[in-house]
Amino acid sequence: MSVFEGKHILLGVTGSIAAYKAADIASKLTQAGAEVDVVLTEHARRFVTEVTFRAITRRPVLIDLFDEPEERQIAHIHLAKRADVLLIAPATANILAKLAVGLADDLLTTLALATQAKVVIAPAMNTVMWQHPATQHNVRILEERGALFVYPAEGMLACGDVGAGKLADTPTILSAVETALAPPLRGVRLLVTAGPTEEPVDAVRHLSNPSSGKMGYAIAQEAVRQGAEVTLVTGPTLLDPPAGARVVRVRSAQQMLDACLQVYDGVDVVIAAAAVSDYRPAEVWQGKRKKGEEEWTIRLVPNPDILRTLGERKGGRILVGFAAETHELLENAQKKLLEKNLDLIVANDVSQEGTGFRADTNRVTLLWASGRQEQLPLMSKREVARHLLQAVCDLLRAAKATKGASA
Prior knowledge:
Layout (H helix, E strand, L loop, with lengths): L7 E6 L7 H11 L3 E6 L9 H8 L17 H8 L2 E7 L1 H9 L5 H8 L3 E6 L3 H5 L1 H12 L3 E2 L3 E4 L5 E5 L3 H12 L7 E6 L4 E2 L5 E2 L6 H12 L3 E6 L11 E4 L3 H12 L4 E4 L6 E3 L18 E3 L3 H7 L5 E8 L3 H11 L4 E6 L11 E2 L1 E5 L4 E3 L3 E2 H26 L1
Parallel strand pairs: 1-2, 1-3, 3-4, 4-5, 8-11, 8-13, 11-12, 13-16, 16-17
Antiparallel strand pairs: 6-7, 9-10, 14-15, 17-19, 18-21, 19-20
Helix pairs in contact: 1-2, 3-5, 4-7, 9-13
């Protein structure tokens, strides 16, 4: 049976030249067994008409906030309660701004405020508008609230520009709706480590690294959205904790290892994205060491190897690590993959612009224990998280199939 069978989908269509593609989306959803109610904004009606969608869905098409197609029902409340998914495709920069601030000045924005359904948003606009800091800020706000974005594709736009802004194709959008209806990681217990660790030198100084925690937090947030039960063990960061995740805050590498071991027996997957300090001072100065003229020599000793420790106790878990390198990226990552008994490693060259520490984007290569490799282009850390979690889903399915075959 189709995952869409019997599901109620609200399809919001806004004023973009790509609005005509929403007819295909409505048609495919209806053919798959979904009940589709289409909501057109006034600007959308400049591009498409309600007649098209009424013929496709065999349902009334809603436009005005005060439309009441069913007696004794307040439409925007009734539809909001019934919906399984609110899909907005295409979504303009204007609608993203309205949703981000909670504006409710038409039927679609009112429905968005009134529903507790999963929200899937597929933007389409000019490249400059999509890349504008205000638009990207609104996207981040909505993602933090749980919205699932289908990022626009690159290509020739209606205005003649070339770049990101095209509405994603129908299969990609339907796949996102399917993810919202049937989260692929539902029931999976997942441990994520994130951020830097700090090793105290004295009461006011420490050894650390520039990690912001953005990659690990993006993984944790996306995993929650995909239905996983997430424990996030995090070093010190300035980031807001992902909604829905259990957060354990630590400072040192030893504390991070201890926190991981406390939950390790109860998890199915570990994604170790933290930038752990490899060394710590052999002695910690009591109080603050006052500045003087003499040199201060600090002797460093190795920290516990968290990934190696977890790999030695791996059992049937999926174990994923990160390799942040500045040279011989793939060689070093492959070595770490084997030595730490990992199923998958994410390799990134932190010396490149726009990747690694503190950046909002990353360019990584995935390496599997099977020998497979996949190089991803520069993309947001949220998109990297999605690619990574898809790889984790594939590993879980393969493990389940192997287990079933041997039973």
